[in-house]
Design goal:
By secondary structure, the chain is of the alpha/beta class. It is built from five helices and seven strands; from the N terminus they run βββαβαβααββα. The longest helix has 14 residues. The radius of gyration is 15 Å and the shape is globular. The mean pLDDT is 93.
């Protein structure tokens, strides 16, 4: 993958120090563009990539590095609508900071892992929140996801074991 070719992303926003897109403090990158168009989506303004703004990966990295304590979440839209650029960003995050990365996508893990363009990001992702939001399965009691069909996938263990392994969230207790 040509690193220079993917030096920017089309995003809707960057939210710093959010606590809803994964455990702990997070810097969330909200991508523009989504083909899933889930009824009841909490962010339908992100569907149209033309409504986003082009932002350099260098700028995004400067925001990510500005917080020593916040990990990173890719949301949207669907980050896998721009898989090459998000893969470049994820690689840089791991190489330059080692931060934990969560990625939300409307694709199922099985589809992502079988599709080379999408699967390239997996070595850099810690948790993949997979599957489309389904309004009829909405469940407000679930942590970090909106409907019961969505899974929290422990990506590195899934890759190592060649099977889907769900992430088990263990909140920090004092």
């Amino acid at each position: 993958m040509d690193k220079e070719m993917y030096d920017s992303l089309v995003i809707v926003d960057i939210l710093e120090d959010t606590v809803v897109d994964g455990p702990g403090l997070r810097t969330s990158i909200y991508s523009a563009g989504c083909l899933h168009c889930c009824p009841g989506c909490h962010n339908p303004e992100s569907w149209d990539i033309e409504q986003g703004k082009v932002v350099s990966l260098d700028y995004i990295m400067s925001v990510i590095k500005s917080s020593d304590f916040a990990d990173v979440t890719f949301s949207g839209g669907d980050p896998l609508y721009q898989p090459e650029a998000f893969t470049c960003l994820a690689r840089r995050i791991k190489e330059e900071t080692g931060k934990n990365i969560w990625c939300y996508t409307g694709y199922r893990y099985e589809v992502v892992s079988r599709t080379p363009r999408l699967a390239a990001i997996l070595p850099f992702i810690d948790v993949l929140v997979d599957g489309p939001f389904i309004q009829g399965l909405r469940d407000v009691s679930l942590l970090f996801r909106g409907s019961s069909n969505q899974r929290l996938i422990d990506v590195q263990t899934s890759l190592a074991e060649s099977r889907v392994v769900e992430y088990e969230y263990q909140p920090f207790c004092v």
